[in-house]
Write a structure and sequence with these properties.
The chain has 17 helices and 11 strands. The protein is an alpha/beta fold and 498 residues long. The protein has an 11-stranded mixed β-sheet, sandwiched between helices.
């Protein structure tokens, strides 16, 4: 067995190869652990790797297969989890010193579904602290590097998970997407990332940042693998009050999946296009022209309140962050710093000493917009604008089936370039935030590579659909994928899987 063979396969193909006897689960697991060992010190994708448990799990699955058991939809497939996802007995620190050493007492619903489907958990990936960031630089433990250029960001906040998939350390990883934390890293790393409809996947066991926005969201290097993971993870969970009372997602039948004739794709037309890098627009336009050649109809669409999305998000999200993170004060769980010996002193010392700067900034903003005398002027107004954005989308979807835009206004930027400019960092989520505010499904797919003085860097195209239209988005993604003349580009440093 060569190292490259299992690394180059999708999750679907890996499972089929294992069931056919081409590889054992142990061989597949060892190959992916070797890939992590080769690249992780440079790229810092994984915060922790549990090789011993992964190998033990692989042996168990091989034994089950030998007995004629175990053929779940992810049987033998290596997976990784973002560090804000609970697994009983494992540290769940959310990239923060305040939860360093905290051991989860239970396993998240979506993690259990992965395991029940036969997946092999390899470890936990790096992230911006409490999922607050767009560059991966806010983690207390390590900063993931973009595999296309290690001087650049991999995006955020699910940066480590994106790097792990892009470099084939795992074929599938789970991140969380609050305002673009899966879609933007997917675009920067040249892979697929899907934020499902709000409530489509249970949040039970996902540590909260913004409770009305957070969604467990998968990364993969094929659209078909996203479809597979969504099928496994979706469905009603009584332990999550926001879980939609619907059965699991069902993929479209093959005959439907290729049907693009008559599908109307809305192309966003608004003043914000002036802020998009020309090389990004070129690559996205090329993908739209390919859809048009396959029968889709392109139409210009305007969302009148789109320019208010970023300020609205940073009121709503920070208010919810302030509320959710109030529990981390040193009294119940996580780190405690005693301070001056008083209770108030302990609260102050713990929160000041164990939270990072970006988390403190958002807590302060959120506390302010919820405070007496200001809540209606800020939080109340933001919620009304959020409703207007939802109405904009509803009106747009009366005319078109999906909306298309760049995932991010630029390609990956240099680490440190926006670290001291919070507003510039927030604007990198320009196109991803609106769908989050509306609770709609959104998919980032690879749109090609730039070729200019910035070097060859991935570009992402974002597709947004009405609620529960993930099948439609994936149909478009699969159509573009199947029309490619070559496989998804591999980062230059991963020569072993070319």
């Amino acid at each position: 067995m060569s190292l490259a063979a299992p690394l180059g396969l999708s999750a679907r193909a890996l499972r089929e190869a294992i069931l056919a006897g081409s590889f054992s689960v142990l061989e597949v697991t060892e190959a992916h652990l070797a890939q992590i060992a080769k690249h992780n010190s440079e790229l810092q994708a994984f915060q922790r790797v549990d090789a011993e448990s992964a190998l033990a799990r692989a042996r168990e699955l091989d034994a089950a297969l030998a007995r004629g058991e175990g053929n779940g939809p992810l049987f033998g497939v290596p997976v990784a989890l973002k560090a804000n996802m609970c697994v009983q007995g494992m540290e769940t620190n959310c990239g923060s010193r305040i939860l360093e050493g905290y051991i989860a007492p239970y396993t998240a619903s979506f993690v259990q579904k992965l395991l029940d489907a036969g997946a092999v958990l390899l470890g936990v990936t790096e992230m911006d602290e409490f999922a607050m960031g767009s560059s991966g630089e806010n983690s207390a433990f390590g900063c993931p590097r973009n595999p296309w250029d290690t001087q650049l960001t991999a995006g955020g906040s699910s940066s480590g998970a994106a790097v792990a998939v892009a470099t084939r350390m795992v074929p599938i990883a789970l991140g969380s997407d609050t305002g673009g934390s899966v879609r933007q890293p997917a675009a920067f790393c040249g892979i697929y990332g899907l934020k499902p409809t709000y409530g489509r996947i249970s949040r039970y066991g996902l540590v909260a940042f913004g409770s009305s926005l957070d969604q467990v969201s998968p990364f993969a290097h094929t659209a078909g693998d996203l479809e597979l993971v969504l099928e496994v993870l979706s469905g009603l969970d009584e332990r999550d009050s926001t879980s939609l009372p619907l059965p699991a997602f069902e993929p479209e039948r093959p005959a439907e999946a290729q049907r693009l004739v008559g599908l109307k794709v809305g192309v966003l037309k608004h003043e914000l296009n002036a802020d998009v890098a020309p090389e990004v627009l070129v690559q996205c336009q090329a993908q739209l022209e390919r859809l048009e050649a396959m029968g889709a109809e392109l139409m210009e669409i305007e969302l009148p309140h789109l320019s208010y999305a970023i300020p609205t998000y940073y009121v709503v999200a920070t208010a919810e962050a302030s509320s959710n993170l109030g529990r981390y004060d040193g009294s119940l769980f996580g780190k405690r710093i005693e301070g001056d010996g008083s209770l108030t002193g302990m609260f102050e010392a713990t929160r000041n000493g164990a939270f990072g700067d970006e988390v403190k900034r958002r807590i302060l903003l959120g506390t302010y917009v919820l405070s007496a005398g200001y809540a209606e002027a800020w939080y109340g107004k933001a919620q009304r604008v959020r409703t207007l954005l939802r109405r904009d989308y509803a009106a747009a979807f009366e005319a078109v089936d999906v909306l298309a835009s760049p995932t991010a206004p630029t390609t990956a930027f240099r680490l440190g370039a926006k670290k001291e400019d919070a507003l510039a960092m927030y604007l990198s989520d320009l196109f991803t935030v609106p769908a989050s505010l509306a609770g709609l499904p959104a998919l980032s797919l690879p749109a090609g590579l730039t070729s200019n003085d910035t070097g060859c860097l991935p570009v992402g195209l974002q597709l947004v659909g009405p609620a529960l239209s993930e099948g439609r988005l994936l149909r478009l993604a699969r159509a573009l994928e199947s029309s490619q003349t070559s496989a998804l580009p591999i980062p230059p440093l991963c020569t072993e899987i070319r």
